[in-house]
Amino acid sequence: MILLKNARVFDGKELNEESADVLLKGTTIEKIAPSINMEEGMQVIDLDGKILAPGFIDLHVHFRDPGFEWREDIESGSKAAAAGGYTTVVTMPNTDPAVDTPALVKYVFERGRQAGGARVLPGACVSKDRKGELLAELGLLREAGAVLFTEDGAPVRTSKLLRTALLYCKDIGAIIMEHPEEISLTEKCQVNEGRISSLSGLKGFPHSAEYIDIERGIALCRETKAPIHFTHVSTSLAFKAIAEAKNEGLPVTCDVTPHHLSLDENNVIVSRYHSVYKVNPPLRSREDVKAAWAAVADGTIDAIVTDHAPWHENEKDLPFEEAPFGIASLECSVAVVLDTWLKMGKPVSLSRVLELFTSGPAAILPEEWRGLGHIAEGAVADLTVIDLDESKVVDVSTWKSKARMTPWNGEILTGWPVMTFIEGRLFDGGGSYGEN
Ligand code: DOR
């Protein structure tokens, strides 16, 4: 049994400023009370007023396994997630082979179970081989353990396929996670369209590309009444469209990334086009970052996801135009968000920020996993401890992840996850991968 003393408990919705003790027994939370007496055989950890939250959930990570394990495999990714404060992550299926069969779904789940870090839940493809032609066997994939369906890296190729997939998902209690991009508008694009594309001469992703795909999804959602989730939303135009759909009562949800909440296109210029800032969707304007925080405040955004996109240094450390898209961030993403939130003068309540890492994403998962985003007696003991006063340098040489290139390496950030409990077990690091 583990007794956590003097915690400020965030239960998934509200932060209780009164100090509480929380007792973990086996894999569950046994008791929560203002004070619990220590008994023999208990391991006691004094949290000294730190925040005890439900284990953080990341609905969108790329672990490159199977197929590209040198970039990240399920074990390194799962450990990186736990080191970064996450207890559950959902993997994207843009692997090789793409995760489009029950056997591959089970492979990801089983490898995750053995990995020794965060729980790994498989996301599966909408179409066979992610080709956008034939619908994958969504029912069988769901039965095998897939928690959502996505073509991430690309949108669902045709409206017809998306409509059919939405109708299937409605029946099987799953959700489509749409990567919102009208690809006929984004061919060869490199950066945001606007100031940076004008200054650099690089081709810019127009905001309409995100907006058009979101409007397509909303139209199909309106017709089918099937839930749809838009991932890594980045423009004020898109937040507005999603807010309107929500006001209309449609089952639409969305998420935003730590990089779109903290960085903007100027970082690309100031860094003289460093490839660590190359990501899809691209870093947008300062106004879009402000719109993202406004969308956090008004409830438009349901979750924060990393879109952790690991690449080997040899593949990513190239001139901007030649480098692949993607930011690796699992081990500093929580601190990036909290540090930005602190520096911006706390534009929203802390509870609202914590909700987007816990009960927000949990509500998007299928029924059997929804309990994960809450702290209550009898709930699974997945917990993240946050120290808002902790300041630390981001040092990729200590990462569990195989990725080494991130925009924040060497930066001092304030507000860190300092302990992660997965099913009642304190994550102790589980060995580093060092140089790769
Ligand atoms: O920047 C990105 N990288 N965006 C995506 O949508 C895919 C991801 C990847 O797989 O590397």
Tags for this model:
30% helix; binds (4S)-2,6-dioxohexahydropyrimidine-4-carboxylic acid; eight-stranded parallel β-sheet; 14 helices; alpha/beta; globular; 436 residues; TIM Barrel; eight-stranded mixed β-sheet
Q: What is the CA-based Rg, rounded?
A: 21 Å
What can be said about the biggest beta sheet?
8 strands, mixed
The total count of strands amounts to 18
Mind telling me the CATH class? Answer: Alpha Beta
Cα distance spanning the termini: 38 Å
CATH homologous superfamily grouping: Metal-dependent hydrolases
Query: What is the number of helical segments per DSSP (H or I, 4+ residues)?
Result: 14
- Quickly count the domains: 1
**Average pLDDT over all residues:** 97
Unique ligands: (4S)-2,6-dioxohexahydropyrimidine-4-carboxylic acid
Helix percent reads: 25-40%
Give the low-pLDDT segments: 431-436
CATH structural architecture: Alpha-Beta Barrel
Name the structural class. alpha/beta
Strand content: 15-25%
**Which topology does CATH recognise?**
TIM Barrel
Give the overall shape, derived from the CA principal axes.
Answer: globular
Plain-language structure description:
- By secondary structure, this protein is α/β, with parallel strands linked by helices.
- The protein has one domain (55-373): Alpha-Beta Barrel (TIM Barrel).
- The chain has 14 helices and 18 strands.
- Strands 1, 2, 3, 4, 5, 16, 17 and 18 form an eight-stranded mixed sheet that branches.
- The radius of gyration is 21 Å and the shape is globular.
- The two termini are 38 Å apart.
- Bound molecules: (4S)-2,6-dioxohexahydropyrimidine-4-carboxylic acid.
- (4S)-2,6-dioxohexahydropyrimidine-4-carboxylic acid is lined by residues 62, 94, 152-153, 179, 279-280, 307, 309, 325-326.
- The active site is at residue 307.
- Its EC number is 3.5.2.3.
- Zn(2+) 1 binds at residues 60, 62, 152, 307.
